[in-house]
Task: inverse folding
């Protein structure tokens, strides 16, 4: 296949999850409902944290930023997918593809790094409770969030720059519902060995290091909890990080599932179906996990939702 100059590739075709006409209404209704639940749930978490003075603590400050990142993460891909299903127009321009890819990596990395920050917060709260107010002061909390956004922006720009240098062939069909970086590499005509190595190095840095920090934090947390003499004390200590641990397992478990499914299954679209799990299902479930397992969030949500009735 003759290579085509990158400047002449003006658009890509997103094949989506299925081309079966009978499945399109079902997929549209399903993903629209999940998207609305994800956005509404995370917005309620943000409003509850910002409106309740009892929740103005580091843990809930990080949670509200995580909810904001989740809204951005799912909004990068889902509205475009819904529009494609509804209009049967699966074309995305080259420029829009790069922008979508950049924002997807940005918000995904923000999610990743905020989970690390929240793991550190739980580590300090359980392993160094007496020094917690001093260590987790507002300045440090704000700095950690800013660094998370800055590093995510850096990774996003690195991916944008590498993909923008690629030369694509005449085949521009992407077996996915968005511009997935790994799928774009499969459409390249020239050798991508060096660029693939760079992608793996960047992924190892921005994914491997955060996972290692989370594992280290929870290893120390488990050892600290085991030293608590009473069963009630152990339960209380573990309950403070139970929601975060559930979200960590859900986020990384579904992300690992994407790569395993794409490696095991010969179908290219199996990876697209698995991506739905961590790009849409995880942001949708996070608010439920935190609200169902956290009495403070429940109380704040009740007060928030009861205000319109009181005003009337």
Result:
């Amino acid at each position: 296949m003759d290579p085509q100059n990158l400047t002449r590739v003006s658009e890509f075709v997103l094949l989506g999850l299925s081309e079966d006409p009978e499945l399109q209404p079902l997929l549209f209704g399903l993903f629209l409902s999940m998207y609305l639940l994800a956005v509404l749930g995370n917005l309620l978490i943000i409003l509850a944290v910002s409106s309740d003075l009892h929740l103005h603590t580091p843990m809930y400050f990080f949670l509200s930023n995580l909810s904001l990142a989740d809204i951005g993460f799912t909004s990068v891909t889902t509205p475009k997918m819904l529009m494609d299903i509804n209009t049967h127009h699966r074309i995305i321009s080259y420029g829009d593809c790069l922008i979508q890819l950049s924002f997807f990596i940005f918000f995904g990395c923000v999610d990743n790094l905020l989970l690390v920050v929240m793991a550190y917060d739980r580590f300090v709260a359980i392993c160094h409770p007496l020094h917690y107010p001093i260590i987790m002061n507002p300045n440090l909390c704000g700095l950690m969030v800013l660094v998370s956004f800055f590093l995510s922006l850096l990774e996003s720009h690195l991916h944008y720059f590498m993909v923008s240098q690629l030369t694509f062939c005449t085949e521009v069909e992407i077996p996915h519902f968005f511009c997935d970086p790994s799928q774009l590499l499969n459409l390249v005509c020239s050798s991508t060995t060096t660029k693939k190595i760079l992608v793996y190095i960047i992924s190892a840095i921005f994914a491997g290091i955060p996972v290692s920090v989370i594992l280290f934090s929870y290893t120390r947390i488990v050892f600290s909890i085991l030293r608590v003499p009473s069963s009630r004390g152990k339960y209380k200590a573990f309950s403070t990080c139970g929601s975060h641990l559930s979200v960590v397992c859900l986020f990384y478990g579904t992300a690992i599932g994407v790569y395993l499914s794409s490696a095991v299954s010969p179908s290219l679209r199996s990876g697209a179906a698995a991506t739905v799990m961590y790009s849409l299902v995880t942001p949708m479930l996070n608010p439920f996990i935190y609200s169902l397992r956290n009495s403070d969030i429940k109380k704040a949500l009740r007060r928030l939702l009861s205000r319109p009735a009181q005003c009337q």
